[in-house]
């Protein structure tokens, strides 16, 4: 019985410690909601805002060098010398990324 109480106590302390760690991590990432907002489970959490990816013209010019349609579109609109729009319709990488 004594061992069971010790195991339960250790489990409870671990659970509470993980909760504090998770709250600290979420707060450090800026995902703690303002007072009064609540999310699933009644906690004070909100989804992290999806930050827009920032792309830079770094010399890539081909579709095979891109990782998404969004990235290819950025390169086509902002970077000189790209070769991603063979039919010149304004949609890059139609066979690979932007179907």
UniProtKB/TrEMBL annotation:
A GO molecular function held by the record: DNA binding
Keywords: DNA-binding
Domain of life: Bacteria
Domain Excalibur calcium-binding stretches: 62-94
Name the record gives this protein: Cold-shock DNA-binding protein family
A Pfam match: Excalibur
Protein source organism: Pseudogulbenkiania ferrooxidans 2002
């Amino acid at each position: 019985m004594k061992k069971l109480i010790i195991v339960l106590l250790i489990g409870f302390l671990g659970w509470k410690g993980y909760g504090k760690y998770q709250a600290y991590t979420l707060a450090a990432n800026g995902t703690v909601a303002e007072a009064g907002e609540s999310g699933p489970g009644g906690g004070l959490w909100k989804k992290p805002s999806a930050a827009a990816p920032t792309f830079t013209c770094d010399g890539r010019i081909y579709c095979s060098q891109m990782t998404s349609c969004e990235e290819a579109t950025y390169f086509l609109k902002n970077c000189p010398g790209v070769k991603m729009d063979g039919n010149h319709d304004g949609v890059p990488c139609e066979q690979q990324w932007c179907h």
